[in-house]
From TrEMBL:
<dbReference type="InterPro" id="IPR020094">
    <property type="entry name" value="TruA/RsuA/RluB/E/F_N"/>
</dbReference>
<dbReference type="InterPro" id="IPR002942">
    <property type="entry name" value="S4_RNA-bd"/>
</dbReference>
<dbReference type="InterPro" id="IPR018496">
    <property type="entry name" value="PsdUridine_synth_RsuA/RluB_CS"/>
</dbReference>
<dbReference type="InterPro" id="IPR020103">
    <property type="entry name" value="PsdUridine_synth_cat_dom_sf"/>
</dbReference>
<dbReference type="GO" id="GO:0005829">
    <property type="term" value="C:cytosol"/>
</dbReference>
<dbReference type="InterPro" id="IPR050343">
    <property type="entry name" value="RsuA_PseudoU_synthase"/>
</dbReference>
<comment type="similarity">
    <text>Belongs to the pseudouridine synthase RsuA family.</text>
</comment>
<dbReference type="InterPro" id="IPR042092">
    <property type="entry name" value="PsdUridine_s_RsuA/RluB/E/F_cat"/>
</dbReference>
<dbReference type="InterPro" id="IPR006145">
    <property type="entry name" value="PsdUridine_synth_RsuA/RluA"/>
</dbReference>
<keyword id="KW-0413">Isomerase</keyword>
<dbReference type="GO" id="GO:0003723">
    <property type="term" value="F:RNA binding"/>
</dbReference>
<dbReference type="Pfam" id="PF00849">
    <property type="entry name" value="PseudoU_synth_2"/>
</dbReference>
<keyword id="KW-0694">RNA-binding</keyword>
<dbReference type="GO" id="GO:0120159">
    <property type="term" value="F:rRNA pseudouridine synthase activity"/>
</dbReference>
<protein>
    <recommendedName>
        <fullName>Pseudouridine synthase</fullName>
        <ecNumber>5.4.99.-</ecNumber>
    </recommendedName>
</protein>
<dbReference type="InterPro" id="IPR036986">
    <property type="entry name" value="S4_RNA-bd_sf"/>
</dbReference>
<feature type="domain" description="RNA-binding S4">
    <location>
        <begin position="6"/>
        <end position="63"/>
    </location>
</feature>
Amino acid sequence: MTEESQRLQKVIAQAGIASRRAAETIILEGRVEVNGQVVSQLGTKVTAQDEVKVDGVPLDGQEKHVYYLLNKPRGVVTTSHDDKDRKTVVDILEDVDARVYPVGRLDYDTTGALLLTNDGDLANQLMHPKGRVDKVYTAKVKGLATLEQLAPLKRGVVIKGKKTAPAKVAIEKVDRDKKVSFVTVTIHEGRNHQVKDMLAKVGLPVEKLRRDRYAFLDLLGLQPGEYRDLKHDEVKRLKAGDYRFLRRK
């Protein structure tokens, strides 16, 4: 009976190095060795008898899964490895020994709620389009926003040839003297620069953007650059697909 083989990216994800999608990128970048040979093609299969290394470090089996919520500050890249040697969100978690990676992405100048983990299965679940995880953003925009102006976002707008899913929108504040507004946008998609592109589409260029909530996880008690462990019941809810936000009493 032959030993069961698995795709290389799945093995890397199960070892807690990166999500399966991120593991594919790592492979294509030539950062993975199998039995001493660099593998840079997807589709490679390995067994438990093969020695796999990522960035020269062997996979030592399944790490204990860890989960952190970070209030990402401005000027930090959302990645675990940056070719330009810029500060990454993983660098902020300097006292964390596990090889965590971000779930999804926030732009360099966007702040707010970001989940980091080494649980590849949960990361894939949360990032999959079918997951429909709500992401709530507050944007400071140029101009005096009106509900009529924001209405197209509720129906979906075409960006780069593809229509966005309907979003929830609300106006928090309009400063007529400074000619700026603060609006809340809730989406469940994860395209690059999506909220900025959506608001620009309706004539409201973004000056500042913060993600206030990811699923039911908010920034209560976290200053920019601070992070905390997820509680056991929070992890359990995420794995169960219960992303509902329950307002605190």
